[in-house]
UniProtKB/TrEMBL annotation:
It comes from Solea senegalensis (Senegalese sole). This is Intraflagellar transport protein 80-like. One of its GO terms (biological process) is cilium assembly. Pfam families: Beta-prop_IFT80_2nd, TPR_IFT80_172, WD40. Keywords: WD repeat. Residues 340-628 form the IFT80 second beta-propeller domain. Transmembrane segments: none annotated. Residues 656-802 form the IFT80/172/WDR35 TPR domain. One of its GO terms (cellular component) is centrosome.
């Protein structure tokens, strides 16, 4: 990805700090405004009118991106309209109902999509949950638990509801409120519960422990101690598969779905009462007493606000991820939206200054352009000379050469969750599907596949090049689905690429023809592999090129790959060397010690010679890569081999010579390859290349080049197709594939004696006797005469030379004509 999102202040990067601009729910929050002014953050003290809560607000939930419902211990359900800044009473609940949790029925159910939520579940302290309509009518009340119902959550497709109670029980209910099963029963209250990304597992709290319980009865339960105090809130994101927890030990923590700790915060002054992921999984919010914090998915903090609200009991994000609301202990409902996000590309820095305004700064001449939008900005991406901005209703495409006249087109679906860019076009991902657009705004294709859930796709699981779209299949993460970018149809006759382990991250290279497109992938063992996208019916060759790789990115102008490998920053100057000469690959690497980076750096982009990395503490650092490899790729692509040799002689870098050797061999430029191998002291390979050059026919040369790359089957097939039977037999003899050599000789009824003779000579050398029944069988009826064998071999070679000479004459005559 070439998108750099910058949201923090750090001494290395003098940029404004991102922040949550928020508004209180009452008119009398002047103290709040004064406190916030110390932080330099804007507030709106008189935003909402007409009505407010008188008691603690226990829960909130969005119906649309501009409308929110809140429930309070004053028994009121209020509706907040952010467009008109008005608050209205939806319903006054009966006095015995004290609401605890609220969750709207999901908008997307299967392929059907509602414009807004119509019903929500409301849990209460009397042991019941209530299905309540949008107008406030209680459609159904269900006796669910002994004691308060502390949490209620719909699964992602709305087919099931889960409730957690003070009685320690977790129950699953149908959409209509019928009990399906009691999942677990424990001695302590279950304060919070969350569905797994595929709705097949449940995460819940058990005192100081977290428990992941699959719905399948025989599946293994995962349980671990997560905090030193009682856990109050959990959340599980469906996009990044990470888990959040907040507890009475005043800490919040980030976990993966295997229970491994990814981040633990320092201890706060008060218990962490709420945590919530943004829908896209890139950020999350944390609430505590008079505290609201915005954090990156890796745990470090973007912004900290100290509103005078009491404890924030619930945080709810709008579906587009641009704003959040919090239920506060002093009767406030706090609204906040994220501003001052940053995107960088070459000499341009784009900043979201307001919800509908962006600033573009050219750092070379300090020129500033202001971009205004009709609706709020949801997603943006800056790469390849274009800025793509998705608002709630429209998509804007700006060219970096002209910021004044954007191309604008309407969006069918407002909640764009991901934008991926390539040189010629870009991909929009929203809740309904994937859409490929040209930078002129034309819809090119819309790939579809069985079981597609576009809402859970992220940047690590989707990659785009000029001709290919790659998507990691969330149903089976060993599978990578490949599509033609221009047609949207599946590649390789619909057969996906399948790896032996679950894939964590994928990335397509960006340069070269579509027939040579490569995809790099990192699996769950953190091994890095490379393979071809188009393999023409053959089984794809997936080659390992690195281990302990935590992050990677392709260069934007050449097929150079960089990655964080263990504690080192590694650049693979020519990763495709693994297909031509695997032993050469380690010599093509550029390695830099990772001591200059802090813990767990993550690569954001690799543009030109500059790599941008995000460190574990959130700061940005930049690392430069020598420019010679990019120039060498350019010379190789345009077949300027003399220039490539001159560059390597000038740079005096062994890794460049190794790259040139692999590049020239891949392009069958044997003279250059011979010189490059000689420069790095690979004399056996130099001798083999001379042997290749001495071959009498093109087919033999090609076969030996395939053998050089370790492609034995392909070499044999090339010789057989050209009718060079003896050559194919001799290849297997040279590799001691005796049974295959005999099989070919018998099948084509030639050189059976040759195979037996070489076999006999081989065994005699090692003082062994023949034990193979097949060889013993043919040895009885075939006489071995070395003089006849040598004569036959010489005749075969002369035939091959004659055939090659005739082909050369024919081609020259055809050329003259």
């Amino acid at each position: 990805m070439l998108v750099v999102k910058e949201r923090l202040f750090h001494p290395l990067l003098l940029s404004p700090k991102p922040r949550l601009i928020y508004r209180g729910s009452r008119a009398n929050i002047h103290d709040e405004t004064e406190n916030m002014a110390l932080k330099g953050t804007k507030t709106y003290p008189c935003c909402f009118k007409d009505r407010s809560h008188e008691e603690l607000v226990s829960c909130v939930g969005w119906t649309t991106a501009d409308e929110l419902y809140s429930c309070s211990e004053d028994h009121q359900i209020l509706k907040w309209n952010l467009l008109s800044s008005e608050t209205s009473l939806v319903v006054k609940l009966p006095e015995e109902i004290y609401p605890i949790d609220l969750h709207w029925f999901p908008k997307t159910v299967g392929v059907k999509k509602q414009t807004q939520a119509e019903v929500f579940v409301l849990t209460s302290s009397d042991g019941k949950f209530h299905l309540v309509s949008k107008i406030g009518r209680i459609e159904k009340s269900v006796e669910a638990h002994n004691g308060a119902v502390l949490a209620g959550r719909w699964n992602y497709d709305g087919t099931a509801l889960i409730t957690a109670g003070e009685d320690g029980q977790i129950k699953i209910w149908s959409k209509s409120g019928m009990l399906r099963s009691t999942l677990t029963s424990q001695g302590s209250p279950v304060y919070s519960v969350a569905w797994g990304p595929d709705s097949d597992r449940i995460l819940y709290t058990s005192g100081k422990q977290l428990v992941i319980k699959p719905l399948q009865p025989s599946a293994k339960v995962l349980q671990w101690k997560a905090h030193d105090g009682i856990i109050l809130k959990v959340d599980w994101n469906s996009v990044n598969d990470f888990i959040l927890s907040g507890a009475e030990d005043c800490k919040y923590k980030v976990w993966d779905s295997f229970g491994r700790l990814l981040y633990s915060s320092s201890s706060h002054d008060y218990p962490v009462t709420s945590v919530s992921w943004a829908p896209d999984g890139e950020v999350f919010a944390m609430g505590s007493f008079n505290t609201l914090r915005l954090c990156d998915k890796t745990g470090w903090s973007y912004a900290l606000e100290k509103p005078n609200t009491g404890s924030v009991f619930t945080i709810s994000w709008s579906a587009d991820g641009t704003q959040l609301a919090g239920a506060c202990g002093n009767g406030h409902v706090i609204f906040a939206h994220v501003v001052e996000q940053h995107w960088e590309w070459k000499n341009f820095v784009v900043t979201l200054t307001k919800r509908r305004t962006m600033q573009v700064r050219n750092v070379t001449n300090d020129a500033v352009d202001i971009l205004e939008f009709r609706d709020r900005v949801i997603k943006a991406s800056l790469a390849y000379g274009h800025l793509v901005v998705a608002t709630s209703l429209q998509c804007y495409v700006y060219n970096s050469r002209n910021w004044n006249t954007p191309l604008i087109f309407e969006l069918k679906e407002g909640t764009v969750s991901l934008i991926q860019q390539a040189e010629k076009h870009f991909l929009l991902v929203d809740g309904a599907g994937l859409y490929m657009f040209s930078y002129e705004g034309q819809l090119i294709s819309s790939p579809k596949f069985p079981g597609m859930r576009a809402d859970i796709l992220n940047a690590q699981g989707v990659s785009l090049s000029n001709d290919t779209i790659a998507i990691r299949d969330k149903r089976d993460e060993k599978v990578i689905l490949l599509f033609d970018a221009l047609t949207g149809k599946a590649l390789s006759d619909g057969k996906p690429l399948t790896h032996k382990l679950e894939v964590v991250e994928i990335a397509l290279d960006q340069c070269g023809p579509s027939t040579e497109r490569k995809i790099a992938l990192i699996d769950k063992n953190r091994d890095l592999y490379l393979t071809s996208v188009r393999h023409l019916g053959r089984e794809p060759k997936i080659c390992k090129i690195g281990s302990m790789v935590h992050s990677m990115a392709w260069n934007d102008t050449a097929n150079i790959l960089c990655g964080i490998q263990d504690s080192q920053f590694t650049v693979w100057y020519y990763p495709s060397a693994v297909f031509t000469d695997k032993e050469l690959l380690p010599k093509t690497l550029y390695i830099k010690d990772g001591s200059e980076f802090s813990r767990a750096p993550h690569i954001l982009s690799y543009v030109g010679t500059m790599v941008t990395l995000r460190q574990g503490d959130g700061s940005l650092v930049y690392s430069s890569v020598p420019p010679y490899s990019t120039v060498l790729h350019e010379y190789s692509t345009s077949a300027r081999w003399e220039d490539a040799l001159r560059l390597c002689r000038f740079a005096k870098d062994q890794s460049l010579w190794a790259c040139l050797a692999a590049m020239s061999l891949a392009n069958r430029e044997l003279t250059t390859a011979e010189m490059a191998y000689a420069a790095i002291g690979e004399l056996p390979r130099v001798q083999y290349i001379k042997r290749i050059k001495e071959q009498p026919s093109k087919e033999s040369s090609l076969a030996h080049m395939l053998l050089f790359s370790g492609q034995v089957k392909e070499a044999e097939a090339t010789l057989l197709q050209a009718g060079l039977i003896y050559r194919a037999i001799q290849v297997n003899i040279d590799l001691f594939n005796w049974e295959r050599a005999l099989e070919l000789a018998v099948k084509h009824k030639t050189h059976v004696d040759t195979v037996l003779a070489y076999r006999e000579k081989f065994l005699k050398k090692f003082g062994r006797k023949e034990t193979n029944k097949r060889f013993l069988q043919y040895a009885e009826g075939v006489e071995v005469d070395w003089e006849k064998i040598q004569a036959k071999i010489e005749m075969e070679l002369s035939k091959e030379r004659e055939k090659a000479a005739n082909a050369s004459v024919r081609s020259s005559v055809a050329a003259r004509r």
